[in-house]
Design a protein that fits this description.
Length: about 325
């Protein structure tokens, strides 16, 4: 009985999300984005813990360079940015090739043109929680790239399937989804076979078991699995980020190869490659800090709440 109730609730949530998408696509885009900014500002005001996390991250990154006022303003703008990301998530999936041609500005695409020429090199398409990463995915579709994307499945099976197939499925989008757990060997084999794998590689690592990198001058735990993909997959690492422009368009910026030399010392190689990745992430964040995803603590975990004496006594 409980199982059937859980499925019913999951399906109901799925229907509500579908309804929200339909409504957002009927409303003029300017109104949708205005509402998205409002939602972002509301979350900034109401969720003090998330606000504190964003301010803490920005203070660690820019505290020696910027004022407290700038940090607070940038934190608020980053919440507005997240609101816009949520709106874009529902809007851009319906973009046609004509829409993408009008909305996406390409910069520095030559490395990708060369990389896509016949050869045996696999490609790790390096992205992060910066800018408009959903538009980055639309950019790969626009350019006809076929890639394998690492994604965390949602607990709601109806939403997971819908989000992975609603843009037409792998045959139309060229994007094959792989769960973040249990897919490492498959993804490495794909890159060794000349395929492209895309990932958001700025995820926080485990302090005890992960590797530490220098990030804005402060040590931060990095998830070494992405460096392992590049090393074991013998892949070319090509960075891509997309920023939102003032005129409503998006600029997808293709970077030069991130080159590295493997020494054979696994720990050293993982640290070296992870550091190169974070150098790129820091460069992006310095370009448009208000388009960073500062809500999640990068350097430190959320402080644990002190247990009450009553709980300790129990």
């Amino acid at each position: 009985m409980r199982l059937h109730y859980g499925i019913f609730v999951a399906y109901l949530v799925y229907l509500l999300v579908r309804l929200l998408e339909e409504v957002l696509n009927l409303i003029p885009e300017k109104a949708v984005f205005a509402f998205a900014r409002f939602v972002g500002r509301t979350v900034y005001v109401l969720f003090s813990d998330r606000r504190a996390g964003a301010v803490e991250n920005l203070t660690i990154a820019f505290g020696s360079e910027r004022s407290k006022e700038w940090i607070a303003l940038t934190a608020r703008k980053s919440f507005e940015h997240v609101g816009l990301l949520a709106a874009e998530f529902f809007l851009i999936r319906r973009w046609t090739q004509k829409d993408m041609a009008e909305r996406i500005v390409l910069e520095g695409k030559l490395p990708y043109d060369l990389a896509m020429m016949p050869g045996n090199d696999g490609i790790l398409l390096l992205n992060s929680h910066f800018g408009c990463f959903e538009v980055s995915a639309a950019t790969t579709k626009f350019l006809g790239m076929r890639l394998n994307l690492i994604a965390t499945p949602l607990k709601n099976p109806f939403l997971s399937r819908y989000f992975e197939t609603r843009a037409g499925g792998a045959e139309d989008t060229g994007i094959h989804f792989h769960p973040h757990k249990g897919s490492a060997k498959t993804l490495i084999d794909l890159m060794r076979g000349g395929h492209m794998v895309a990932c958001l590689a700025d995820q926080r690592g485990d302090v005890e078991r992960g590797v530490m990198v220098d990030f804005f001058g402060t040590k931060a735990p990095a998830n070494e699995i992405f460096a392992k993909f590049a090393i074991d997959g013998r892949a070319r690492v090509l960075p891509l980020c997309t920023i939102r422009m003032e005129d409503g368009r998006y600029k997808s910026i293709f970077g030069e190869d991130i080159r590295f030399t493997v020494t054979g010392d696994q720990r050293t190689d993982l640290i070296t490659v992870s550091q190169l990745f974070h150098n790129q992430f820091e460069q992006w964040l310095r370009m448009k800090p208000e388009q960073g995803f500062w809500l999640q603590r990068k350097w430190r975990r959320k402080p644990r709440r002190k247990r009450s004496r009553k709980k300790l006594n129990n």
